[in-house]
Amino acid sequence: MPNRPDPPTRAVTLTVNGTARTVHVAPWVSLLDTLRDHLDLTGSKKGCDHGQCGACTVICNGQRILSCLTLAVMQDGAEITTIEGIGAEGKLHPLQEAFIAYDAFQCGYCTPGQICSSIAMIEAGHGNTREEVKDLMSGNLCRCGANTNIIDAIMAVKDGAHE
Amino acid sequence: MKKHEEIGKPRRRIEGALKVSGQAKYAAEYQVPDLLYGYIVNATITKGRITHIDETAARTVGGVVDIFHHDHRSDLPKFDMLYKEMDAPPGSAFRPLYDAEVKSNGQPIALVVAETFEAARYAASLLEISYAEEAFDVDLKENLHQAKKPSKGLATLIKPLPPGPRGDFESAYASADARFEGEFLHGSQHHNPLELFATTTVYEGEGKLTIYDKTQGTTNSQVYVSNLFGLRFKDVRVIAPFVGGGFGSGLRPQYQLVLCVMAALELKRNVRVVMDRKQMFTFGHRPETVQRTRFGATADGELTAINHVALAETSRFEDYNEVVVNHANMLYPAGNVTLEYKLVPLDRFTPLDMRAPGGSTGMLAIETTMDQLADQLGIDPLEFRLRNYAERDVSSDKPFSSKELRECYRQGAEQFGWSERKPTSEQGRRGNRLVGHGMSSGMWDVIALPGTATAEFTADGKLIVRSAVTDNGQGTYTVMSQIAAHELGLPLEAVTFEYGDSKLPLSPIQGGSYTTGVIGSAVKASCRALKNELFKLAQIMDGYPLGNALPEDAVFTDGAIVLKEAPHTKIRLTDIIAFNKGKAVTASKSNIPNVFKLKQYTRASHSASFVEVEVDEQLGIINVTRAVTVVAAGRIMNPQTARSQILGGMVWGISMALREETLLDPRLGKYINTSLGEYHLPVHADIHDLEVIFVEEHDTIINELGAKGIGEIGMISMAPAIVNAVYNATGKLVKVFPIKVGDLL
Amino acid sequence: MNNFDYLRAGTIKEAVRGIATQPANQFIAGGTNLIDLWKYDLTHPARLIDLNGLDELKTITELPDGGLRLGALVSNNATAYHPIVEERYPLLSRTILAGATAQIRNSATNGGNLLQRTRCYYFYDVASPCNKRVPGSGCPAIEGQNRLHAILGESAQCIATHPSDMAVALAALEAVVQVTGPEGQRSIPIADFHRLPGNTPERDNTLAADELITSIDLPATGYAAHHSYLKLRDRNSYAFALVSVATGLELEDGKITRARIAVGGVAHKPWRKPAAEDALIDKEPSPEAFGAAADILLAGATGYGHNDFKIELARRAIIRNGAMALDPSCQRPGAQPSL
């Protein structure tokens, strides 16, 4: 295989949580590693690095995507919301509040992905029934088994119980 | 005088806001300057020796700093004793990078360290390793004849081997009116916490290290690393405030810790090593286990004969053991019993405690067997269990310290609507889906261990409680804060619990459902000692406000000492500190279990699960449509987090019955579905209506809090209840788990 | 895991020219499979040619013959939720939504979906032999863990299956794949796009290395009234199909006038047999009729041990999906079984 020492970096500008950030990364750096290692935004989690767990879910140009399966260079110019950009300074988003109220997490490692994923799902207008929500949220694994509490929290926000 | 009650109150997790906003930092997330990244290389053979490692290609990758392996490593100790840690089974613990020998597929054999994660990963893929392969054997079923008794050690003290025979099993079984004989099998399972194992080591200079580690025991990692690298305990600090799930995988220090510390010490740099998901399948796991049961009963439903044999996988170098067969006779007082537990050494990595180790395995066979007997006898499964209810543990001839299993049955049956259940295949259908109802009992032994905590009351009116214990998501942080607040009669907000740090008072590893009992009791004891100190100071304050009152005459409430008989006498705790010249008051206490008292009792939590399944008659797809689990586990500290723990256990039970299994290819000597794409954890769409009930149970024996712990018990009765429900729906008994699509066609 | 160059192509021409300069160059669109494969050390691109700037491939447009053109770069989710697709090709919509997860479907593209590699455990393990990955190295799946594997159309070299759901619906819909290469454009009927492994299992499809998928064209017939996708898998969502079935029917006076059945998870490509569909013509839709069609469709199926169950499961799934197709409103999220 071709061996390329010293991969040249490129300037990539991402608007992350409303702020334009320019990083210099080689093409082989994933968006997830860019967020975690280059921008100190470690709220997006690495649970598998292969698109099999959902912990790295971020909202990219309004859509939830897996940040481990895209490269930073591919997202040059994109608008990205990570868990750090959910809710306002000192005020949690209703979904974050609901996750606390419904005890929708235990270890907390899948939580940012669950929240980003469900916010994007709701904003896209998808998930009309509990059964649909369960299917549409199935890309976010929870090993602690908080599944029912997570879905309860999401349904409460969808139903307007948590505004 | 009403005291402020915190114990037993549903409380939200104190760290909740940090977790939902991405601010909670896990081991790989500490930003430290000039960080190097290590990537682990694993053996691709199952057994043999490394003959050569060619670094040429790997070294050409820009940014590579060093490559560690058995020929290029730190000095490591020669004696097994120095590799022992709190959860080491009898044997010779695996030593990362120690020599050229390969003992299991995927064993770590090198660490590539580079300036970036990507360069380390790429260079790791270029390392060319030559091996001399040897013949291996990883197949449990092909090697059952190799089964041997487990070696004894510390592990068999905590997880006892089965008791000797009682009565005459063979003749009782032969003369029983109803008999069931079954062989059950479940494959290996890997813990797969969502957080990858990770260590960030900060090289502080002069042999001093600060280590952010994914672990279930900060002290355990500290002592282990110190022993391996000849460091002084006080120079090694291990920090783990947030741990992204453990389920037992962090009970032993994992190999990324050794490799990370080695690189940091050799390179005198800060280093991070994170496993990838495939590597999460290369160490401890729930062992593949074959079980054989033969149970016999009389026509009127008295269980008379129990034979339960378990044959479990272990490695060639350690005897991992768990309690698989002991519980049948603790639950059901049959008089003729033989129990057997043996290990089959194979060329696989040593297994490791995984949520409800042993209990979830054993109960799957015991409770499925019980249902088969009930079915033969035409007795309702719940009624059959009630007819064989153990008021006393006949297996060791001891009373139970407390046992509210009967109440679990009663409340669960009522909530579930068990009286509507119909015999096998008569439950009815919904369209193409057959409906089935099943139930099971569960049991988990309460483990008592020593633990330490300190309590400090500060000038600004805060109570600070400290222990090295971790919180992997169980809610320990919140519960310990509640226990402390309760003891001092303070609001929860006035308490800070400092934890997850090896510099704090000694805690055992966090496992076995014992943390609340062990550390909670230590927190309570240290708070009580603190109250005594505060009371003594108050006694000598100006004007002797307490008069001749004794500590038992006073209540700590609302941040003050109040006399029961004279509620207007209120001495503010902050005034006591002011009187102490503003100096905080501290007390430290160890909780040392009274072994002599405890030994007189059988101590266990109990549960009962009631499950409804739907089975698509033609397609064999199974769904657990609703389930109720009722738990008797002594005093419940925080009903909200406790409910979540049990819900989690129920999901694990669903997973054990219907989802997860690490597939082994015995010819290649390795696990083959080593990703979260193919190792199927349940997804949201798999989990339906789950309900949790705690029954009241008072236990004055087990520990000061009367708390039995709940980490395991929620899982144990779930899987067998599902298997029994599937049988009730279809009349088909599956004995190889998990039950898969296709098994019911 | 290797490093690579990166080029964001501005035009189709530039992309096609770029791919030709070096055999190890690769297109990247959604990246959801390519980056996965790269991280497993299974593919080693010299240069990634990013197609995401090719806006002309990002539209869904109606064709003069009544069909619909799905741009190759439209995401799977955007396709599934597109109003015309939902209305006229609900089979495709539901099938797409039964695949992967919402996050992956937002990134993954229509062209990329067709090009995803098999999920065979051994293919994914760089330390195992695999004829698809390293021709001539052997196939451990044949006598190993083959629960996921093919029962039809397999060869002594390879028993892998194609993992796409979307391709199964496209097979039933008789879509046409439009591709552009250095020689210009050509059309590949979906039935000819994926191939059986034979002696060259390293080749998944008939696309040339220097060709680019530009669109997937759907014919006018969409089976909106009578269709169903049924996906059977090891969990209710986020798993590849063990067996899946896409069925489209047209009925007149209670009798079948046109039928299409494609089966996924059983072969190296979506499995269709016109003879099985012809056998349904003029029949009333009944378990017997679908069972007879299934027998034709699955003739010659072979199990390899762990996947033996698929033969019977596929037959039953075809029968069930026939019933489900009569009442599309019974469809459940994730294409789980219903009725």
Automatic annotation (TrEMBL), chain A:
Pfam families: Fer2, Fer2_2. It is an enzyme of class 1 (oxidoreductase). It comes from Neolewinella maritima. This is Aldehyde oxidoreductase iron-sulfur-binding subunit PaoA. Its EC number is 1.2.99.6. Keywords: Iron, Metal-binding, Oxidoreductase. The keyword Metal-binding applies. GO terms for molecular function: carboxylate reductase activity.
From TrEMBL, chain B:
Residues 21-135 form the Aldehyde oxidase/xanthine dehydrogenase a/b hammerhead domain. Pfam families: Ald_Xan_dh_C, MoCoBD_1, MoCoBD_2. It comes from the Bacteria. Its EC number is 1.2.99.6. It is an enzyme of class 1 (oxidoreductase). SUPFAM superfamilies: CO dehydrogenase molybdoprotein N-domain-like, Molybdenum cofactor-binding domain. Gene3D superfamilies: Aldehyde oxidase/xanthine dehydrogenase, a/b hammerhead, Aldehyde oxidase/xanthine dehydrogenase, molybdopterin binding domain. Keywords: Oxidoreductase. The keyword Oxidoreductase applies. The keyword Lyase does not apply. One of its GO terms (molecular function) is carboxylate reductase activity. This is Aldehyde oxidoreductase molybdenum-binding subunit PaoC. It comes from Neolewinella maritima. The gene is paoC_1.
UniProtKB/TrEMBL annotation, chain C:
Residues 1-223 form the FAD-binding PCMH-type domain. GO terms for molecular function: carboxylate reductase activity. SMART domains: CO_deh_flav_C. It is an enzyme of class 1 (oxidoreductase). Its EC number is 1.2.99.6. Keywords: FAD, Flavoprotein, Oxidoreductase. This is Aldehyde oxidoreductase FAD-binding subunit PaoB.
